[in-house]
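Dear U.,

For the methods section draft, I wanted the exact inputs and outputs in one place so we can describe them consistently. I've listed the two proteins in the order they'll appear in the manuscript figures. Please don't edit the token lines directly; just add comments below if something needs changing.

First protein:
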Amino acid sequence: MDLVKPDYAGGSILNLSVSIGSFLGVKSQYAGLRDDLDRIQGRRILLMLIDGLGYVHLKQYCGECEEAKWLGEVHELTTVFPSVTSTVLTTLSMGVPPGVHSVLGTVMYVKETGGLVNTLTMGPMPEGKRNGLKDAGYDPRVIFYGGSTIFEEAKANGYQSVVILPKGLSGGLSDLIYRGAEIKEYISVYDALVLASRAVEGNSLVYVYIPLLDSVQHEYGPGSMEYRVALIELLNSLGRLIRHLPQSTTVVITADHGQVQVMQGDVVNLRIITRLMDSLSIAPYGEPRALQLKLGDRSLEGEVREVLSAIGKPLLIYNASEINELLGGVTGNTASRMGDVWAIPTDSTVLIYLYKLNDDKVMKFKGHHAGLLADEMKIPLSIINL
């Protein structure tokens, strides 16, 4: 299978963030989109982030379908690494690469708490209670990245932003990455679209996050009929919205990642590999397709590599210095949190550590992401100037 690295030089979601920021007067040390991709021309932007809408499967299932024609020319971007929601959304809102903002997966090591934290809920594992860090007196802006969001900087320049999220997703990571924007919550995709159509009238940036396709793929897999139907119906709904937006609106459609189809034989249960567990100072973290391991002692790296190789699955095995390029460069804060060893499957393997023995639903997922395969790394970019 083809491996895809993040194109931080002008063809990634980081660069899209920089270009949107530039439209709002935000300066950045990072490159915007390449000239052939940066086509924002309107007076306002409607940004729609469709969680799980991978470029490969979009082209495969809807390259010629009627419901997708309104997208116009669909360009290919890369997401960032790891190709997982918490990492990508933080990059998009902060305008910096993962190695700078330190959110390197759904579960991260946070030395201040002495353990692991769910970055989506900002709660200590294994429960991952929403806002658990804040309840314990910790500030996520100190733990992860204290820089401004593009919404805060845009507001300082006189531009107003609205972020439209599913009900229940405020708090947690949202408190970190959507600072400076007004947050509105929705119950269904349909009222999200109504909220968006109203919000574009009085704001410079309206950002809608839709997780529907990601949820369907985790449950049924990206190769399923359930996903194809959900994809077509969502595109149909979005297309109807676009027709009723005011002129001088630029609509930007993109995603955080795609997904890889996973079979039961692809699942590796790390808990039963005692030789691996005995070498670690803390439970494995990160992602099943971008696994991070903190060693009990740095001298154990060779042994851990040997154990991982003995699993019998095709894996890229990197140490912390070897992973830097994929993360867009690493700050000292990030280096203290990331794994000493990383394992990235190059097929559909998933490396799973169950934090709760009575909750194995992640082992039953038929779709996964976070790695470097084209299915998960390539995302679409459609820019429509009305």
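Second protein (the one for the lower panel):
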Amino acid sequence: MRKLDQSELKELLLKCWMTHDGSWFYHCLQEFGIYTANRLNKAAIKTLAEIELPRITKALEIEIGGTPTPAILRQALKGAFSVVKGEFMDFDYYFPSENVMEWKVNKCFAYEGMKRLGISDGYECGLLYRVGAWIDILGVDYEIATPVQGCMMNEKGFCSNSIIFKF
């Protein structure tokens, strides 16, 4: 038996986790329809974020208590992405200024999965919702430059946007 190195293990665990996530969404969809599946997905994401962000920041020794600052926000988001982003998640994010985070998705694994299920028209992006939940936990007000109701890849053919933080 071959031993996996740390990056291989992380990638495998993330793929398994995302497969579980997609399977869970699919079965909610089959049982309850797209509206309820989206609502339940967002509720689960919010609950997950409330547990995972403090867990990740504690493990990485990132202090998130007190009044949020641009540096703390940036450090917490980078820390979270360092744990939950896999190589198969083909997106980039960056901070062009202290109060803006931008991202660009080259190929979205969630959108591709929803297309395979034939429901990309009704899917509401859980990935952006998760990042928003992290920001909410940090106590920072924000707005999304181009508001997203569903899935940008489906609606516009691309996914690229900015979050403006209000400190």
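Candidate sentences for the figure legend, describing the second protein: The mean pLDDT is 96. The radius of gyration is 16 Å.

Thanks,
Y.
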